[in-house]
Design goal:
This protein is an all-alpha fold. It is 77% helix and 0% strand. It starts with a helix and ends with a helix.
Length: 146
Amino acid sequence: MIAETVCSAAAAAGLGIAAVTAYRKRFLAAARLAAYSLVPLGLVMTGVVDWVADTAFSPTAWAGFGVLGVSWMLFASTRAVERRRGGTRKERRAARAAQSEAIAPAASAPSLGQASRPATRPAATPRAGAGEDFSDIEAILKKHGI
């Protein structure tokens, strides 16, 4: 009863604020405020507020939430232990079998062979004279008077 009154008062206050906002020619903000203020009124009319109030003050509901919490803790702890151990026996057997079988055994052989040889560098091209390398830089500096 009190919850319905509070929600109805909140809706009325919100609609009043929306009306003042619309009077100030901020219609988009007023429509948004009206939408927010109608939510509590809709919750009262659908009976959700009664259900929440009955659930909040019910010892049976709180015991049910406790049972759900214990259930969640059991799921989480068993999952953590399973991860630490590395999965179930079937999963470990499958992982060992997959490790022992190479996907493409011949594919890694050439790459290992090339890694053991030293890399050869291509022959260096002879560089042009030092004067030619800086000619464009000198032209820019002369252009700016430096």
